[in-house]
Design a protein that fits this description.
The chain is mainly α. Helix content is 65%, strand content 0%. The chain contains 5 helices and no strands. The protein has helices spanning 6-15, 26-51, 59-68, 70-75, 92-112. Helix 1 crosses helix 2 (26-51) and helix 2 (26-51) crosses helix 3.
Amino acid sequence: GVNFPVGRLGRFLRRGQYCPRVGASAPVFMAAAIEYVVGELLDAAAEIASTSNKKRIIPRHLQLAVGRDEEMAKVLSNCCVYGGGVTPNIHPDLQKKAKAKGKKAAAGAASDQ
């Protein structure tokens, strides 16, 4: 798995001057939270890579993993994955119109007979 150094994160928190004081458990919690998010992202990207018969995770797999997970997409909505391409997406209004035309055409063909 992925491990994040608690001491280093604590040092970054203290030197970054995000707040005047940093508790002892703050870097531990931060390391655990980052480890969980990165683990989820890598797990989803590995699943996408295996479905495309690849052994390595490339930026495209990360981009697709972020796009598939709704919560991850909200968190990373302002982030750009370099080399990830675009997430395939069709606007829902466009899908409804295409389905409606198909139903009307099928109903019209049935009434003609």
